[in-house]
From TrEMBL:
Record's protein name: Chaperone protein HtpG
Pfam families: HATPase_c_3 (PF13589), HSP90 (PF00183)
Region (A): 1-325
RNA-binding listed as a keyword: no
Residue sites binding ATP per the record: 34, 38, 79, 84, 92, 99-100, 122-127, 172, 325
SUPFAM superfamilies referenced in this protein's UniProt entry, alphabetically: ATPase domain of HSP90 chaperone/DNA topoisomerase II/histidine kinase (SSF55874), HSP90 C-terminal domain (SSF110942), Ribosomal protein S5 domain 2-like (SSF54211)
Family membership: Belongs to the heat shock protein 90 family.
Organism: Muricoccus nepalensis
Keywords on record: ATP-binding, Chaperone, Cytoplasm, Nucleotide-binding, Stress response
Xref: PANTHER family: HEAT SHOCK PROTEIN 90 FAMILY MEMBER
Compartments where located: Cytoplasm
Length: 542
């Protein structure tokens, strides 16, 4: 039928388009990077879905084709990928699904106008960057496995249209009607140089049409397969940005080949910034699994969840190319790779932890995530304990458990911690008085997760870890400096009176050597949850 449906863009898309079209100029060639990356992703996804046989395979030699047409002033990017249904066209290209893009729009709107072009250059804005160079964009797509095709079209203002279309093969074609001042994107030479600059590491063939022939434009050598000495820091960074949809410099780059019991090459990155998609969002590791360079899936769980901030690629010879999801779950090969890769990341962190200032950058971004490992991977909790950093009642900055232990007082039997919501409030807590008076250091824990792990970890270098709010803390063996403590008054007659007055609200009232200036303090029952845990449980309604 000839019906054309008209749809409004989501409000955020409208704002983004406005910024994209009006704010930039200098870096607009990145539209090609964005569209080619989407096309390559779509081919990867189709290849993997086809393994289970449900959809037709990617045709032999299937490439992403970039086709300039000088007469029509159009640039077409076509891929034999997974394609989109009508509904997917409307959602993927009509709303902003990615929280990262949303956060980016925010920072773009807040940036001074002069800074915007470089911001866009750094970040990329996905599909919508097409409107930097085109005043009309048509996307025709046929989902692999479906019979019908649909066309999405827009001039990048308030709305887009959807209409029925025809397409012989599954995949997607994007036709850009180039703006008058964007004619240089019709030059094959220019297109090729952009692709080489931004997309050389994409392993799907990319071609640029010239005089009726498709000429290869990318080298397509998987970066991780090149010898380290042939890789510049810039190409590592570019690859990292492409993988993670991020635009900072990596804090760590790990590139190695394991040979022997199991053969694989890994190229992993630890981000230098906390990603927009806050670590709380995605809970699973997205390290990509390749088999002999071919992308298989980013859902193989190659790293435990508590290392999910690591991006990268693992490429192995030890799995068949047509490995299916089911097989991935069952194969011991993956478990072995996982162990090796996890150990390598831990050892890298241990090495970098020796440089306190440098390590603090990592810790402030991802420390809370790392702590989850204390529950999730008890087999690694000794390693993780060495990587933990804390605020402390005794020293500025971050301190480790090992440093704490080296400062323990004579007669001090445990590592003391106080968990709560804010470090500033913790530092002022009356719970610390007796510890301060005796010069006993207390670690101040203010992450949500801090209420939970000390009990799990239980000990570090044989020293028990105790919450200062627990009733059974015994400081009597630690000598206080002369004059730091007053002679304790005899309160033995007061205690039963208090217990009587508070009735069931407390289980016990007792004298303590933990206080100096304050008359009373709440303590948690021996063996029970500490106070912060009780607060969290109460908040959760339990
Ligand atoms: P991102 O790629 O980061 O998700 P984009 O704005 O670049 O964001 O693309 C939005 C979505 O549109 C993609 O996630 C994908 O689902 C879909 N999409 C874009 N281009 C294609 C394509 N060539 N083939 C299939 N799906 C695509
Ligand atoms: Mg994209």
């Amino acid at each position: 039928s000839e019906t054309v449906e008209r749809h409004e863009f989501g409000a955020e898309v409208g704002r983004l388009l406005d910024l994209v079209v009006h704010a930039l100029y200098s870096d607009r060639e990145i539209f090609l990077r964005e569209l080619v990356a989407n096309a390559a992703d779509a081919v990867d996804r189709r290849r993997f879905e086809a393994l289970t046989g449900a959809i037709p395979a990617v045709p032999e030699g299937g490439a992403v084709r970039v086709v300039p047409d000088k007469e029509a002033r159009t640039l077409t990017i076509a891929d034999p990928g997974i394609g989109m249904t009508k509904a997917e066209l409307a959602t993927n290209l009509g709303t902003i699904a990615r929280s990262g893009t949303r956060a980016f729009t925010q920072s773009l709107a807040e940036a001074p106008a002069g800074d915007r072009p470089s911001l866009i250059g750094q970040f990329g804005v996905g599909f919508y960057s097409a409107f930097m160079v085109a005043d009309r964009v048509e996307v025709t797509s046929r989902k692999a496995g479906a019979e019908e095709a649909w066309s999405w079209a827009s001039e990048g203002r308030g709305d887009f249209t959807l209409s029925a279309a025809t397409r012989e093969e599954p995949g997607t074609s994007i036709v850009l009607h180039l703006k008058e001042d964007a004619a240089d994107y019709l030059e094959p030479f220019r297109l090729k140089s952009i692709i080489r600059k931004w997309a050389d590491h994409i392993t799907i063939p990319i071609t640029v049409a010239r005089d009726g022939t498709d000429e290869p434009a990318n080298e397509g050598t998987a970066l991780w397969r090149k010898p380290k000495s042939d890789i510049t820091p810039e190409s590592y960074t570019e690859f990292y940005r492409h993988l993670g949809h991020v635009f900072d410099e990596p804090w760590a780059t790990l590139h190695w080949t394991a040979e022997g019991a199991i053969d694989f090459t890994a190229l992993l990155f630890i981000p230098g910034m906390k990603p927009f998609e806050a670590v709380e969002g995605e809970r699973e590791s997205r390290v990509r699994l390749h088999v002999r360079r071919m992308f298989i899936t980013d859902e193989a769980g190659l790293l435990p969840n508590w290392l999910r901030f690591v991006h990268g690629v693992v490429d192995t010879e030890d799995l068949p190319l047509n490995v299916s999801r089911e097989m991935l779950q069952a194969t011991p090969v993956l478990a072995r790779i996982r162990r090796a890769v996890t150990n390598r990341v831990i050892s890298e962190l241990k090495t970098r932890a020796k440089e306190a200032e440098d390590y603090a950058k990592f810790w402030e971004n991802f420390g809370t995530v790392l702590k989850e490992g204390l529950f999730d991977s008890p087999e690694h909790s000794k390693d993780i304990a060495q990587l933990l950093r804390f605020r402390s009642s005794a020293v500025e900055g971050w301190t480790s458990l090992a440093d704490y232990v080296s400062r323990m007082k004579e007669g001090q039997e445990a590592i003391y911690v106080l968990a709560g919501d804010a470090p500033e409030a913790l530092a002022k807590s009356p719970q610390l008085e007796g510890f301060r008076a005796r010069g006993v250091e207390v670690l101040l824990l203010s992450d949500q997760i801090d209420a939970f792990w000390p009990e799990r970890l239980d000990r570090f270098e044989e020293k028990p870890i105790r919450s200062v709010t627990q009733g059974n803390v015994d400081l009597s063996k630690v000598a206080a400096p002369e004059g730091a403590l007053e002679e304790a008054a005899d309160v033995s007659r007061l205690l039963p009176l208090l217990k009587d007055a508070l009735k069931d609200q407390v289980s016990e009232v007792r004298a303590t050597d933990r206080l100096v200036g304050s008359p009373v303090v709440l303590a948690a029952a021996e063996g029970g949850p500490d106070l912060q845990m009780q607060r969290l449980l109460a908040r959760a309604g339990r």
